[in-house]
Amino acid sequence: MARDASTRIAVVGMGYVGVPVAALLADQEGLDVTGIQRRSQRSGWKIDVLNAGKSPFEGHEPGLDELIGRIVRNGSFRVTDDFSVIKDMDTVLIDVQTPTDDADHKPRYLSLKEVSRHVGVHMQKGTLVVIESTVAPGTTQFVIQPILERKSGLKAGRDFYLAYSYERVMPGRLLDYIINLPRIVGGVDKKSCSKAVEMYQKIVEAKILSTDILTAETSKTIENAYRDVNIAFANEMAIVCEGMGIDVYEVRELINSRAERHMHVPGIGVGGHCLPKDTWLLNYGVKTYGKFHINPEFVQLARKVNDYMPIHATEIIKNAIASREIPFRDAKIALLGVAYLENSDDVRNTPAYDLIRELEAYGAEVVAHDPYVRTFPEAELSRDLDYVVKGADCVVISTKHKPYFKLNLKKLKSLMRTPIIVDGRNVLDRAKAEKAGFLYKGIGKG
Fold first, then answer.
1. Packing angle of the helix pair 18-26, 64-74 (nearest 10 deg)
2. Among the four residues 143, 216, 253, 348, which has the most C-beta atoms within 10 Å?
């Protein structure tokens, strides 16, 4: 007897998108899910961790640990590095990273193309392929579809189904956002779209909106560019308030007292897999596949503002240390938090990268602390807070992890050589820090 359609699903890429969507699908009656992950030195360990029924993420992810443990015990989920299992799959979800070049901001599709070739070689007629990776508008139809068709000998929309549906996840809320946020699905044809919608209806409780692939791809990049622009505005206003000698957070509170206003929160920089690159993916897609030439300057300016924030933070740190007549080349900087997002272990495109490079370029020693991140090659990293701050001339709060709100200022001061705090995330109360004997500086705090 032929098995029911869409009962066997492969999810390629066991990251912040692939793991939660695979876990939710595997928890549905009648669905069997196989995760596929390359066994590389950097991420191959995820295979063994997931097969042991554990989450690979060390940040706080409500419900995920229990869910993974349950589906592994039930036998509905396992992970492999063998792409040949795709030959037995009804549905394949592709969830691999799509970075951009630092120099020209063009998308680097090496992993996406490689995975597409593997899928094309092994997939059978009637397979539904869904791209969940964030890509430049036009990529699914003009990059991925030709690879799938060439390697499989099949035709999209005729012999197999092809759709694009972007993720809206955020570390700390992975399951919540998949289940409860509206889902956008675009198909190469109506049948592909309806097949994808049918699958997502098994795990998404919010509204599922259907469109074409190009519109779905463009919506994803514009959605993130919109947020990037709003953060850039907040960051630039933070610098304005510093220049005026006032507190941007008080200004923000006053502005947002009007219900329809929503000024975002400034900070030491913008990180994550999406925001630092999705503006450039939008820019690339418009220029490569657009019907006429357009250069979206406004969103590019926002990128420049947000990329400048670690440089601006470095200037604040340098000035604070200089005010204590300490040569910067002799200074030790204790960096609290290297993850880009609070209470997570996600270091993708974290502004800590640029901040550390800037500080070290001026000769300072940087030692980092993070309660969730296990490795960070860019700097010496320890989970021992006392060790990190001992002998430091400046503590820099770059991530608002929950433990940092409860810092013992008296103990912190006793361990440091020079009591300076630069608060990049509005974690500490200025008056309390100054009362404890610290020179306190912060982003947006004049």
1. 50
2. 216
In a domain, 49, yes or no: yes
Q: Which among 154, 189, 206 is the end of a domain?
A: 206
| Candidates 46, 220, 332, 445; catalytic one | 220
31: amino acid identity, one letter: L
d(CA 212, CA 164): 8
Range of the domain at 395: 301-442
272 found inside a domain: no
Tens digits of residue pLDDT in 138-148: 999 999 999 99
pTM more than 0.70? yes
Same domain, 14 and 142: yes
Contact 208, 26 (CB under 8 A): no
Q: E-strand spans in 40-100?
A: 77-80, 91-94
The tally of domains found in the chain comes to 2
CATH (domain of 116)? 3.40.50.720
Give exposure, 316-330, as e/b (b: 16+ Cβ within 10 Å): bbbebbeeeebebee
In 118-273, beta strands by DSSP E: 128-131, 161-164, 183-187, 208-212
pLDDT tens per residue, range 42-66? 677 899 999 999 999 988 899 999 9
Tell me the two tokens of residue 17.
Answer: 């998108």
Structure-token pair, residue 433:
């820090």
- Write out pLDDT tens, residues 70-99: 999 999 999 999 999 999 999 999 999 888
Residue 186 in 3-state DSSP? strand
Banded pLDDT at 2 (limits 50, 70, 90): very low
Whether residue 318 sits in one domain with residue 195: no
User: Of 35, 169, 50, which Cα lies nearest the Cα of 92?
Assistant: 35
172: left (phi over 0), alpha (psi -120 to 50) or beta: left
Q: Which of 46, 274, 277, 394 is catalytic?
A: 274
32, two tokens = 């069997």
Confidence of residue 41 (pLDDT cuts 50, 70, 90): low
What is the Cα–Cα distance from 441 to 245, expressed in whole angstroms? 12
Closest CA to 143 of 285, 36, 283, 292: 285
Confirm whether 64 is domain-assigned. Answer: yes
Cα 103 to its chain centre, rounded Å, is 20
151 labelled catalytic: no
- Asked if the structure places residue 289 within a domain, the reply is no
- pLDDT tens digits along 7-26: 899 999 999 999 999 999 99
* Separation of alpha carbons 354 and 135, rounded Å: 24
Asked which of 206, 230, 250 is the last residue of a domain, the reply is 206
Q: Mean pLDDT throughout 307-311?
A: 98
The reply to whether 191 belongs to the active site is: no
